[in-house]
Amino acid sequence: MRTVSAFGRPGLLRVYTALLAIVLLISIEGCGYKPVSRYGRSLFGNKVYVSVKPSGIEPRNGIFIREEISRVFRDRFDIDVVLRRADADSAVTVTDYRFGYSSLSTDDNGYVTRYRVTTDIRFELETSRGKRTKKVHVSEDVGIKASSLTSSAAREAAMRYSIEKAMDEFIAYVAQEGYLR
What we know:
The longest helix has 29 residues. This protein has one domain: Lipoprotein like domain (Double Stranded RNA Binding Domain). A hairpin with a 5-residue loop joins strand 3 and strand 4. 40% of the residues lie in helices and 31% in strands.
């Protein structure tokens, strides 16, 4: 015995499903939605120069921030990071940064098992279209185990993720401000 779909004919459900998927894709494309990563080349050009002004309190973190921002440009936006400002289409400068750590929970022995990394970064973007500045504040919660090696890796991963979040927020701000028009 042959079964009939809810629409009266076999296979008609597949046709309706395909049509619905096509209509959904067209409406998403038609509304103008683009993920932030699509704005990368429009904002920064093909080559970007990244610099971080060192902090007297955390000079080592400045090097880490520069490397992370450069990695985001290379991996996410496929933009070349150059060593000289004169070779770049745009420049991103971190003029101020601060990382803070606060305990969220401890175990019975007083060892921190969860903490929050807060990151404040002040970005400056300079292109041929002008200059934009934005201070970004982000935080990331990290759970750790009772091992110094694991704690160090978790701290570094949290810093890396918070820098990425800060970059996303800065790029969204610049795009929202109409900088692309």
